[in-house]
């Protein structure tokens, strides 16, 4: 496909894409096992942080909807706010890190890009946790309101 386009345009790959090393750095196709492991670790830690935030937010929201004055000695709004900040912060951090916090990574020389599952897990996973938090809050509100 690329070869056909280059042949049709009459230019070389060097002319179209520039220096190969510089281009490879831009598209992040380096097959570094250590970088992949670090990327996966960041992604998993951010997902776990998002889940902790979700549980805190739902715990605080449940207490608020049931008119509980204290949760282990603190007002229920505290775990709600902290949880929401943590779950949204984890999703934003994952988005800002981009490919440096991916679970699935494309291999050098792979014939095709990672599929739909990789996209969902890498890009939408943290935002799905935010969505689940909001859906959980809605269900709690319906149940106790």
TrEMBL record:
Keywords: Membrane, Transmembrane, Transmembrane helix. The chain crosses the membrane at residues 43-65, 77-97, 124-142. This is Tripartite tricarboxylate transporter TctB family protein. It comes from Barrientosiimonas endolithica. The lineage of its organism: Bacteria, Bacillati, Actinomycetota, Actinomycetes, Micrococcales.
């Amino acid at each position: 496909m690329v070869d056909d386009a280059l042949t049709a345009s009459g230019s070389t790959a060097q002319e179209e894409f520039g220096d190969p090393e510089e281009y490879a750095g831009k598209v992040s196709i380096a097959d570094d096992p250590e970088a992949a492991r670090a990327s996966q670790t960041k992604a998993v830690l951010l997902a776990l942080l998002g889940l902790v935030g979700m549980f805190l937010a739902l715990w605080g929201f449940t207490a608020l909807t049931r008119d509980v004055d204290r949760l282990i000695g603190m007002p229920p709004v505290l775990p709600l706010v902290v949880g929401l900040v943590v779950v949204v912060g984890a999703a934003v951090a994952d988005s800002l890190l981009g490919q440096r916090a991916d679970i699935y990574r494309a291999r050098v020389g792979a014939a095709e890009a990672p599929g739909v599952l990789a996209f969902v897990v890498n890009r939408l996973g943290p935002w799905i946790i935010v969505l689940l938090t909001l859906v959980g809050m809605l269900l709690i509100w319906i149940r106790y309101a």
